[in-house]
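Quick check before the chapter quiz. The format below is the same one you will see on the exam, so make sure you can read both the input and the output lines.
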Amino acid sequence: MIHDDRALQERARSVGEAFLARRLSLAVAESCTGGLLAKVLTDGGGASAWFERGLVVYSNAAKQDLLGVPASVIDGHGAVSEAVAEALAVGLLGRAPVTHSVAITGVAGPEGGTPEKPVGTVWIGWGTPARVEAERFRFSGDRDAVRRASAAAALDGLLRRCREGA
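Here is the expected output.
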């Protein structure tokens, strides 16, 4: 599936409309996407009514320093893991006055993959004060394709959770 700027912006607009209509707010933490999700969420006007902040936590030190991810979680599971995606989402909820958080951590490539976590492996965590959950994805394509597919999946998950009232 192609995730060009227009398609991502359309998804982001839908998220913004849903969040605004329900008076929800959002913060994002991004590793492998390097700020792409925050960019598309704020491309349209009016995002300040529901988008609170975005952090790029590319290094393990940033994950620990800015969002409180314990070193033991990173050491025990790896930066690209369910545990880290959930810890990032929880860290955001504890540091930003928001109703929802989303966190992305993955291997965008072209290097960095392993047999257990090949290039294209991405974990996305979604959080609310009541629930935090993460999902693993395996995207194909080059670095840009993996990053765009990750942002699209994060947006789709936000929209789905918003519509479900989660």
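If your answer matched, good. Residues 143-164 form the longest helix (22 residues).
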